[in-house]
Design a protein that fits this description.
The complex is a heterodimer of chains A (about 120) and B (about 500). With about 120 residues, chain A is mainly beta. Chain A is about 10% helix and about 45% strand. Classes of the chains: A mainly beta (about 120), B mainly alpha (about 500). Chains A and B meet through α1 of A and α2, α3, α5, α18 and α19 of B.
Chain lengths: ~120, ~500
């Protein structure tokens, strides 16, 4: 009995060293998110993807993951491939009011990627 | 006090397999060890996992699963989560290290600290957005472990469980309408019992105790204590006098300690306790706790509907107060302390006036007699809220745990299956909430009527005494229905 907490702490220490870190962002792009106030329901989010000097990027894949800050809501996903003049229209469902954290990941044709996060309140 | 032995429908401890498991020395560990592992996971993922609560075990396990399952367990069985409490595991170590010399101060042997702890917990929950922070949730779990260890080390009994723990306090109150209760089987055995092991525990050097007359030189029955000794009740409840589940952590130490095998975990009428005028001591603190917990249910649910933001913003504009902490503190002070005091005592005062009673101490007697009848409504409000989160998010544990394993290079359960995280249909959630609220109100109102008729033999006086309380119950139910009919939010910013 007395040894059990020590063992669990030991296992925790080992696990701490085992967590795999995410791959670092390697793509050099500018990602611009819609700044309009969102409302509950289906919508289309327009994401702009540019090179650092402002040139549009069209052949990327844009993935949006929406997580609520409160536990207990499954994430909402949106994905689109290819854009026009750097603009990507991603279907998205704001399915509940509250605080959201949107993660927008852009993957370029060469496999490099970048992502940003932004908080929204409905 | 006289020995109390109501008729039992069934003794769970005598059921073939479950009864043997529960009575065994390691019986409680079967729940505690898994809960301890889950607590360790919460701490670990809280510190090292994704910062988003909806992606972290420290977000989902305590704020979705624990809260949902705890109300179901309390409604359909009993205080199972105190039985499996992992915080008491290191506490056992503290108990062995402790000199066990000090007693918890007499003036603190009441529920006022527990009420303050509940208030503090709900205030911090809103102010610090505990529901949104796996890291803070992990610290809350560590604080629980630390406090229970420290208090067990310093004092003789288990003051953390009985006088402080907010989770335990919630469970104690709610378990007063649970269908299971500890009671004795044979009152005569307790009357002649010498050791009172159920409360004192047994550390006899003689491990075999003869408990019956010896016939022809052979003992007819024997009871063998474990050589390490058997603990008595940690919260100092004496089994033959237990009329209430209040303060019972369902550890079953009493059943293990009793050399006469005279303790039952009995199935009972869940309403017996709250309508038995002698079941609870007539204490202001105990009565106020119940009514405050019902109001806390309303205040906590109010935090996830849109009008709360408008209200706090308007208070902010009117008073010039911009500090969210101050606004929330004021909000909780009014809704969870002042309102239950005002409305609870006000209902008791009206009840005394309407019934025409002239007895000294009538206000206290009325307040403390009717207070237990608020438990069904309180549990109904909490159930409507907690099951909303549970039915919405129980399945999210599947992809979160799959992600947790993948994060550690373990591909045992494959890629996250987000389809498994789909919430229950809105209609199902609404039905559960209506049943919980309406059922809570009806049961509370009927229990209050029964209490009124026990207090007053005259039916007219009984109805008059009942009226203010059923009015308050109805008002609270209407408020609860209004809140739960609004679009529920998974939280938004309080001050915009």
């Amino acid at each position: 009995m007395r040894a059990r907490p020590v063992w669990i702490l030991f296992i925790l220490l080992i696990l701490t060293g085992c967590r795999v870190s995410n791959r670092p962002d390697t793509a050099s792009v500018l990602i611009t998110l819609p700044d309009a106030k969102p409302a509950i329901g289906q919508t289309t989010l327009t994401v702009t993807v540019q090179t650092p000097d402002g040139k549009p990027i069209d052949n990327a894949t844009v993935e949006i993951t929406g997580d609520m800050t409160h536990a207990g809501m499954a994430p909402v996903f949106g994905k689109v491939q290819g854009g026009k003049e750097g603009r990507y229209s991603v279907p998205f469902d704001w399915n509940m009011g509250g605080d959201w954290m949107l993660t927008i990941k852009v993957t370029l044709p060469d496999g490099t990627s970048a992502q940003i996060q932004q908080k929204y309140t409905l | 006090m006289p020995i109390y032995k109501p008729a039992a429908l069934l003794d769970v401890l005598q059921t073939p397999l479950l009864g043997r498991v529960l009575r065994s020395r390691q019986g409680r560990l079967l729940l505690q060890v898994p809960f301890f592992v889950l607590a360790a996971l919460i701490i670990y993922d809280g510190f090292t996992g994704p910062p988003l609560a909806s992606r972290n075990l420290a977000g989902v396990l305590p704020w979705v699963h624990y809260r949902g399952l705890v109300v179901l367990a309390l409604l359909f069985a009993g205080n199972l989560f105190c039985m499996g409490c992992p915080f008491t595991l290191p506490r056992t170590l503290a108990r062995r290290m402790s000199k066990r010399g000090r007693h918890w101060p007499q003036r603190l042997r009441n529920k006022w600290i527990a009420i303050a702890a509940l208030f503090t917990f709900f205030f911090l929950y809103e102010w610090l957005d505990l529901w949104a922070s796996p890291l803070l949730t992990a610290w809350v779990v560590i604080a629980y472990f630390s406090l229970s260890f420290l208090l067990e080390f310093l004092f003789t009994e288990s003051p953390f469980c009985k006088y402080i723990c907010p989770l335990g306090t919630f469970n104690f109150v709610s378990s007063t309408i649970s269908p299971l209760q500890i009671q004795v089987k044979d009152a005569n055995r307790c009357a002649t019992c010498v050791g009172h092991e159920c409360i004192n525990g047994s550390y006899s050097a003689q491990p075999v105790i003869l408990i019956d007359e010896i016939t022809d030189g052979v003992p007819t029955r024997t009871h063998t204590h474990d050589k390490k000794g058997v603990l008595g009740c940690g919260t100092l409840l004496y089994a033959p006098q237990i009329k209430s589940n209040m303060d019972c952590v369902l550890c079953l130490d009493c059943a293990r300690a009793c050399p006469h095998d005279n303790i039952a975990l009995a199935v009972r009428n869940p309403l017996r306790e709250i309508t038995d005028l002698s079941a609870w001591p007539k204490r202001w603190d105990l009565a106020f706790l119940v009514i405050a917990l019902a109001f806390m249910g309303l205040a906590n649910a109010f935090g996830i509907v849109p009008p709360v933001y408008a209200l706090l913003n308007s208070i902010s504009r009117a008073t010039g107060i911009t500090s969210q902490a101050v606004l929330l503190f004021g909000f909780f002070l009014v809704t969870t302390i002042l309102a239950p005091a005002l409305f609870g005592v006000g209902a008791a005062w009206l009840s005394v006036k309407f019934s025409g009673t002239q007895k000294a101490g009538a206000l206290r007697l009325t307040f403390t007699s009717f207070a237990p009848t608020f438990v069904p409504l309180a549990v109904g409000i909490w159930t409507a809220h907690y099951l909303y989160h549970f039915l919405t998010g129980a399945g999210t544990i599947i992809p979160i745990f799959q992600n947790f394993l993948l994060d550690h290079g373990i591909n045992l359960l494959g890629a996250p299956n987000y389809a498994a995280a789909a919430p229950a249909a809105n209609g199902v959630i609404a039905l559960v909430q209506v049943v919980a609220l309406f059922g809570g109100f009806v049961v509370s109102a009927l229990a209050a009527q029964r209490v009124a008729f026990k207090l007053y033999r005259d039916r007219g006086a009984g109805y008059a005494a009942w009226l203010p309380f059923v009015g308050l119950l109805f008002l609270m139910t209407v408020i609860a229905f209004w809140m739960f009919s609004l679009p529920m939010e998974m939280r938004g910013a309080l001050i915009s």
